[in-house]
């Protein structure tokens, strides 16, 4: 009786379930159970090859990721951390193949249950070409993306939760996981809290004021040049786009010399006529004013060219209909021109704000974020990105730099997401 009961239980197990169980135990065994011997051998060979070639690397990598080493001078925490991150990616590929092996065994078992003929090797290769060829072609690019972009990002994220700084650096010392302590220090330790609040507030002011001014100036000039009463439009447009044609770093270095309070032409040749000498580089307020003016000069040509192109696409019929209805210039600007401009350019304008939030070049090339400020470890004109640069390459506070970078990324991501969601161009996408 016991034997008959066991036989009955065995019969109740469906082939698809048995194939999955066999593939879970040994990859490829489920395919062999389904009489797909060649496919089963391929899965088995791939599994064995993967384990033989990567087991030791993954084993050390996962151990190093959790411990960051145990013997100073012998174990290098940074190398172990990077190896651990790469191990996670390699392990992810292995798990993906393992899961695919289980699903494939189940689908083959279902085909057997439905008495569908198994595809031949040629048919299988043809199906792979039709369905999987695009994925196979993007695989090299995906791998490069993982190891060139994703791994450095994960490494930066990991550093934010360690104690990696100039006083605790491998291989002399081992790193330790400190959780969110670095983020707590930004809000509790006076020098970090004061510096972060000062730099963050200036970064917001810099982003909003400088970007808004360049957009307003570009819009004003585009509307002015587009007026039918203006002649020599091509020459004027060419002249206004010239600042965009000159490399930005060249313009910034020239402005740095012009604003020099000692020998700069602005103080020596212009303001001296009114007996005025402004400390452009030594006073934080005037340095910020100079930076905003320079960014307005550098940024308005792109906005001008953008708005000029969009203005050419506004239907003339709309203006003619407004004239017939007695619409004023302000009403036409408010109800026709501006909605059309903002609908077409809103995503790019948002990217202007995001770009200036991380505009490292102008801050560093103009005066390296100086002048110094008492009680802070950042300069008076440093924004978050330039402060992160100094923390990384000058004071070697890698952990705090990584923590600030995460905060910056979250701010930009949240801002861009909500602004894109509110733009009409985003809402209308895919309707036509």
UniProtKB/TrEMBL annotation:
Subcellular location: Cell membrane
GO CC terms of this entry: maltose transport complex
Highest classification ranks of the organism: Bacteria, Bacillati, Bacillota, Bacilli, Bacillales
Keyword Repeat: no
Function: Part of the ABC transporter complex MalEFGK involved in maltose/maltodextrin import. Probably responsible for the translocation of the substrate across the membrane.
Main location: membrane
Keyword Transmembrane helix: yes
SUPFAM superfamilies for this protein: MalF N-terminal region-like, MetI-like
Organism of derivation: Virgibacillus pantothenticus
GO biological process: maltodextrin transmembrane transport
A Pfam family annotated for this UniProt entry: BPD_transp_1
CDD domains: TM_PBP2
Transmembrane segments: 42-66, 78-100, 135-161, 204-226, 238-259, 285-311, 336-355, 398-418
Topology with respect to the bilayer: Multi-pass membrane protein
Protein name (record): Maltose/maltodextrin transport system permease protein
């Amino acid at each position: 009786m016991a034997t008959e009961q066991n036989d009955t239980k065995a019969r109740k197990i469906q082939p698809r379930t048995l194939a999955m169980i066999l593939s879970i135990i040994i990859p490829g065994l489920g395919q062999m159970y389904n009489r797909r011997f060649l496919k089963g051998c391929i899965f088995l060979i791939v599994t064995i090859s993967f384990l033989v070639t990567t087991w030791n690397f993954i084993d050390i990598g996962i151990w190093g990721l959790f411990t960051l080493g145990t013997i100073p001078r012998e174990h290098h925490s940074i190398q172990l951390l990077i190896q651990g991150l790469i191990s996670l990616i390699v392990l992810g590929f292995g798990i993906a193949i393992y899961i695919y092996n289980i699903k494939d065994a189940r689908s083959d078992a279902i085909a057997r249950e439905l008495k569908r003929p198994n595809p031949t090797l040629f048919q299988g290769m043809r199906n792979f070409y039709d369905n999987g060829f695009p994925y196979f072609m993007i695989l090299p690019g995906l791998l490069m993306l993982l190891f060139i972009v994703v791994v450095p990002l994960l490494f930066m994220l990991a550093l934010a939760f360690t104690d990696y700084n100039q006083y605790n650096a491998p291989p002399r010392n081992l790193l330790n996981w400190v959780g969110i302590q670095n983020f707590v220090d930004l809000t509790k330790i006076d020098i970090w809290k004061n510096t972060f609040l000062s730099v963050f507030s200036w970064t917001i002011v810099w982003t909003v004021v400088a970007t808004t001014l360049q957009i307003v100036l570009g819009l004003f000039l585009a509307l002015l040049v587009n007026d039918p009463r203006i002649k020599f439009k091509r020459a004027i447009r060419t002249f206004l786009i010239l600042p965009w044609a000159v490399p930005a770093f060249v313009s910034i270095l020239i402005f740095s010399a012009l604003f020099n309070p000692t020998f700069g032409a602005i103080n020596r040749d212009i303001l001296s006529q009114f007996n005025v000498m402004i400390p452009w580089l030594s006073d934080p307020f005037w340095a910020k004013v100079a930076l905003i003016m320079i960014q307005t000069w550098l940024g308005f040509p792109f906005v001008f060219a953008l708005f000029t192109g969009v203005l050419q696409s506004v239907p003339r019929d709309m203006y003619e209909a407004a004239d017939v209805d007695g619409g004023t210039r302000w009403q036409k600007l408010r109800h026709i021109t501006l909605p059309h401009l903002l609908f077409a350019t809103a995503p790019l304008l948002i990217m202007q704000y995001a770009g200036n939030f991380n505009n490292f070049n102008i801050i560093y090339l103009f005066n390296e974020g100086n002048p110094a400020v008492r009680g802070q470890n950042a300069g008076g004109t440093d924004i978050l990105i330039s402060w992160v640069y100094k923390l990384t390459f000058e004071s070697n506070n890698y952990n705090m730099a990584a923590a600030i970078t995460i905060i910056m990324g979250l701010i930009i991501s949240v801002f861009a997401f909500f602004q894109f969601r509110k733009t009409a161009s985003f809402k209308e996408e895919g309707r036509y």
